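If you are new to this repository, start here. Below is one unmodified record pulled from the training split, so you can see the exact layout before writing a loader.
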Amino acid sequence: MGGRAGFDCDVLVIGAGIIGLSTAYAITRAAPGTRIVVLEKEHGPARHQTGRNSGVIHSGVYYRPGSLKARYAVRGGAEMVKFCAEYGIAHETTGKLIVATRRDELPRLHALVQRGRENGIPVRELGPAQITDYEPQVRGLAAIHVGTTGVCDFTAVARRLAESAEASGASVRYGAEVAAVDRRPWGVAVRTATGQVVRARALVNCAGLHCDRVARLAGDEPEMRIVPFRGEYYELARPGLVRGLVYPVPDPAFPFLGVHLTRGVDGQVHVGPNAVPALAREGYAWSDVRPAELAGTLGWPGAWRIARRHWRYGAGELHRSLSKHAFATAVRRLLPAVEDGDLRPTEAGVRAQAVLRDGTLADDFLIARRPRTIHVLNAPSPAATASLPIGREVARRTLELLTAG
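And here is the target side for that same chain:
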């Protein structure tokens, strides 16, 4: 196949979450006239990780200095606020507290102060009395206040990215699940579950919870597997107990931030998430079981190694999943006034966590280049915050593929 005539598009993006749509948006701006098709198996954008998180615009305070997460979260957070303001999307820069409730957490809290400063983030240290200036109902031994953290409606952001990309000529096709990928020296042909075939010069895999499966369809061994972790949330029946965002001090050995309190743009306060193994890639409840997907997870050596390494942490998360009282007890460490009856179950999310063969949790965003293909293989939180710079980086690498011929 020579030239562009034999192709349906220049770039085919799989996945209409916020990363896939940001990539399409970035390509239309960097290289106007590039023909783009986005395939999404759901009947609308942002149906999984993008639309099922706590809506936090992260500051970047947690992430290793120099990492993609640190650089893109700091830059992306500022860009996300600007994007929301430009397009009239609900958002607010609330700031957040990270609160130590035990003495053994104080060294980790001080380490976060240092990390925040290394990442160029303004961080204020607080004593017990100062905590109540920000959050009258929150108790702790010490805290830090991070002023650049905020909240927004990431689903609305994704819809706006899709609209902007389509206005620039991109085609976003919903209800188009990828069933097969045929990569040749001249390009890539993708067949959907309905039999539609799309031929492209380059493929971008932004399939989120299914990104490793799509990589293998393309003939690539990604050297990781997505191990899905469900995050369960409650809503606070008395949202007046919390003014903004309140987090515990995270455990650096695990990528999850612990149960936190988040006042969203709708005024509701979300409590959570915990982190329990999901029994399907889209396992939003214990009843969601897909035996083939579960077998794939259990067949990956890294899944067993992470279970052995973190079984004690996992047991606590499992207990909080099965017992609302245990969940409420964890919340009371930060917010003593919370009662069991204040917690109302709400929509869960699933985190697409890349796990390496040795059981290591991929710590940073992971973007891999293969012939005619870019794979986004690890983009959990703070990927929504960082989506605009991630999209530009994926777009840059994709355009390099096109110019390489």
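Two things worth knowing about this chain: Residues 230 and 350 are 4 Å apart (CA to CA). The chain is about 30% helix and 25% strand.
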